[in-house]
Amino acid sequence: MVYIGIDLGTTYSCVSVIEHGKPKAIHHDNGKNIVPSVVAYGAEILIGNDALSSNIDMSNILYDSKRLIGWEFLHNLPNAETRQLWTFKVATKDKCAGYVLNKGTPNERFLKPEEVSAEILKYLKVCAEKYLNQKVTGVVVTVPALFQENQRAATEKAIELAKLELKGLLHEPNAAAIAYNEKTKLGNSKLLVFDFGGGTLDVSILEMVGNNVDVMAVSGDIHLGVEQVAKDQTQNRTQSLNRDPIPNQTWGPARDPLPHQTRDSTSNPTPNNPHIKPITSEVNNNPYIRDAIAIDIGTSKCKIATCKDKYIQIVKYGNSEHESSRSVPSYVALSEQCEWLVGRMAENYAVCLQNVIYVKLIDEPIAVAAAYAPRLNLHPKGDVALVFCMGAGYLQVAAYFIQQKAQEEKANYWTEWVITKISAIEPIVGNFAGDEIDRRIFEEMMEKLTDQNGNKEPNLSERAKRRLKIACEKMKCALSFAPHTRIDVDSLYRNDDNEDQDLVKVIQKDEIKGYYNEEVDKIIKQVGEIYKDLKPKFILLAGGSTRLPVITEYLTREFPGSTICNFLDVDEVAATGAAAIVSKTVTMAKKSIDYEEVIEIIKQEKEKEKRRNPFVYL
C-alpha cells in the first residue's frame, strides 16, 4: 500500500510522498514542486501549466474550484462581487454553484467544482505514480481549518471521483505544524500558525505534545487570500483607468533598490555564504537615482524592468503568478487583418514607452554584473567577477572589476557600485546555448522515433515537430532537478498501417546529459584557461540554460576558490541589472582598468591574506 499527501490549493497544488522515511514534495515536468490548480476542457482535458499555455477558449479554462466547492448558491459566496473578474461562466443548478462549459452552444454542460478538483487530484496521483513507479492507493488531503461541512463533503466527493481512497482530511495549519516539527523538532510547545495562501487565510493556535497536535483556537477567512488581494487591486486599477486614461501609477514604497526576488526562483534568496549580503530593507540615499525602464530582448523571451522611487522590479502582465506573466514571448505574428502582433508588451506598455527620452544599449554581461553587485560582499579595493551568461541563443562570458564606494554630499551618505571593464582580455561570445541543446535533444528523440518506426524516419507535420520540441524542452528542465522523467507525446505520426504512433519513453538524467556534456565541458575548460590568472572571487550566472547542473559543476572545477552566484532569478537578472544602470543605481566606469593592474591588486591582496592567516596557507 502506498499513500500520498496532497495540498489541494486555490491557486497551486502539491503532492508529497514518503521517501527513505521522510516526506518529499515531488517535482513535475517543469522541474517545480507546485502545479497551477487550473483545468482546461477542450478536445482533451489539460491540467496545470499545460492548461495555462493551451489555446483552448478562455471560458473553458477553469480555476478557483476551491472557492466554489461546497456552496449551494452563487449569491451566498462571500466574494460574489468579484465574479466579474472570472474568465469562465458560472451558474447554480440543483443547489450547487458551479461552472458552465461551452455556454450558449449545443455542447453546453454544467460542471460541479468537485469534478474540476477531481481532475487536479487525478493528475497529482499520476505524477506520484510516475515518480514512485508503483500504484498509489490512499491519500491524505489538506483543507482550510474553517471549511464548513458542505465544503468538506464536496472535497471528499472529489477524492472519490479521482478514484483515491481517503485516509483523512487534515487541517492546513496542522499540516504546516507537522512539517515544521519534522524538520526542526519543535518539541512540546504552543504554536501560532499563520497560513495565508492563494485563496484562504487560516490562523490557528496549536499545542504540540510529541508528534501530536491539538487545536486550541481557530480563526481566519476562507475567501481571503493573495489572489483576492490581487483581484481587489485590479478592480481599483480598472476604476482608476476609467477615471484617468494615463493614471498616476503607484509602484510601492521606496525600498532597497536591489533586484526583486521572485517566488518562482528555485534558489535560496539569502544563501548562507559570507561573500553574499542578505536582502535588506535599507533605502539607498543616492540622490542621482532616477526613474527608468529597461528591456531585455532575449532570443526566446523579453522582459521589462522598471526603477520607480528607487525600487527595481520586473514588470508583470496581469495578476497571474505564473512565470509567463513576467515575460513576453519573442514572437511576431501577422494577423488575418494584416496587423502585426507582438506579444503583450505593445498593448500594455505603450503608454510608458511613449515618453522615453533616453535610450542606452547595455551589454548583457554588464547588466548581469549590475544586478548582482549590491548583493556582493566586496573587498574595499574591489573584486573581480566573472559573468557566465547562457540563454536560449547565445553564450557570453566576460570579467569585470566591481568596486563599492561610499559617497557623501551635503550630509547625505550613500553607497555607489562601480563596474569597470578589464582591458586586454576579450569577452567570449558563442552560439552554443539553450536552443542548440534543445536541437540536440530533439534530434536524439527523432532517432528514437526512427528506431520505433523500423529504422525509417517518420514524416512529422510542422505541428507535430513543434509539440515534440516543446516536450523536449520540458524534459530538459525536469532533468535539471529529477534523476529521470518521462516524455509522452501522442499522435506524432502515422505508420505504414495508417495507425497513430506516440513517443513514450523514460529518460534518465545521465542519458540526456550525454547529448551536450562534451561541448559544455570544452567551453568551460576554455573559460578556465582564459580567466584563470584573474582568479575571480565571484562567478555570476545568468540565462535559463545555467540551471543545468553541469554548468555549476564544471565552473566549480575550473574556479575552485570562487563563489558561484545564482541566487537571483537567472531569467530576469539582465533586465533588472539594465534598470539598475540606466537609473544610476549602479554606475559603469568610463575608462577600463588595465589587466596587469588587476593582476597586481590580486597579488597584493593575496600576500596580505597570507600574512593575516599564515596557517591557512601552510
UniProtKB/TrEMBL annotation:
Renumbered to this chain, the Polar residues biased-composition regions fall at: 233-251
Q: Which InterPro entries does the record associate with it?
A: ATPase_NBD, Heat_shock_70_CS, Hsp_70_fam
Which ranges form a coiled coil? none
- Renumbered to this chain, region (Disordered) spans 233-282
Keywords associated with the record: ATP-binding, Nucleotide-binding
* Pfam families, sorted: HSP70 (PF00012)
- Read off the Gene3D superfamilies from this record: 3.30.420.40, Actin, Chain A, domain 4 (3.90.640.10)
Any one GO biological process: response to stress
Q: Membrane-spanning regions, if any?
A: none
Q: Give a GO molecular function annotation for the protein.
A: ATP-dependent protein folding chaperone
The record's section on PROSITE patterns has: HSP70_1, HSP70_2, HSP70_3
Family membership = Belongs to the heat shock protein 70 family.
Q: What is this protein called?
A: Uncharacterized protein
Which source organism? Diploscapter pachys
Q: What is the lineage of its organism?
A: Eukaryota, Metazoa, Ecdysozoa, Nematoda, Chromadorea
